Amino acid sequence: MTLHNSKNKKLVLFLGYGYTARFISEEIIAQKWSYIIRPTRKSNHMKKQLFQDVFARLGLAPKPHYSRLSQQDMMGSLMSISDKPIAPPLLLNKPKHIKNYEDVIQDMIPKVTHILITAPPGDQSDPAFMLYSDLFLEKKCPLLEWVGYLSSTSVYGNLDGAECDETTPVNPNSKRGANRAYAENIWMSLYHKMDIPVQIFRLGGIYGPERNNINDIVNAKAISIIKEGQLNNRIYVKDIAKSIMASMQTPTPGEIYNLVDDMPASRAAVNDYLAFMLDKPAPKKILYDDYKKHLSDMQKSFYEATRIVKNDKIKKMLGVTFQYPSYREGYADIITQNITANDNSEPSVN
Question: What are phi and psi of 286, to 5 degrees?
Fold first, then answer.
């Protein structure tokens, strides 16, 4: 198979391939582009010396305790669908001189035009960066036009309900948010130090088909935890995919974008809306202070951080218009498709 890097023929490399990446890959196919996937964990691949060498080449200073991390710690969690790269449909006609899929990947790396990092960081480390930093440091992708990193609005921490935009200083109130902020700095260092075309997207709580609260509403298992003034910023996965494609088509290196919808709302408001749409009883309401003893530290950090994240920048700079500007349109689409699944809509990136 021959790839031509013309205006309409691009090759996207996914580092990690989870829920959100699947929807983005559909947009890539719709544009008649191609894509390949690389996993973000390899057994016995990462060495402490590699970790230190990469940071030294970028002029970064690893935290002192990094040298004591085990290889498993440094790899982070597996966020790809396999320990081996997966062949996309566009690569089924394998050239005769290619013996296996790993050879296919290596043959296509120099043709990559876009790289999207969807895998989350580990404990103050980034497995995707540590495994594939050679792509950038050794300039193995000479046609590279765009690099995108999917981060999270959790980097802003608790603002007691105040508004924030991309100029707001990061101040995470959770380990998850701190890891995201640290990973952002790692990826953005490639732009500042090597002029790699990196852009960062801070996503709100992701929801969509197979990732929602409908089953719990239907089966009367949902509860609404009430905390005064607490609002959540969400984003429908289909709008994420279209926004990322808009950025791929219009690279803006060095920029950071908030990717949230137009209507922050409490979990209770969403539950009540779903109950109404599904003609089911509204879930029981429980005060946060009465229920927090049953929550994990991660869940507590979710409820103890409230902010209103602004999305004006991505609309203005990339011309993005959300098809699902609030949870109402998003869940109406899911209900119309009659897709129900367990709720996983806490802020996360996959």
Answer: -130, 135
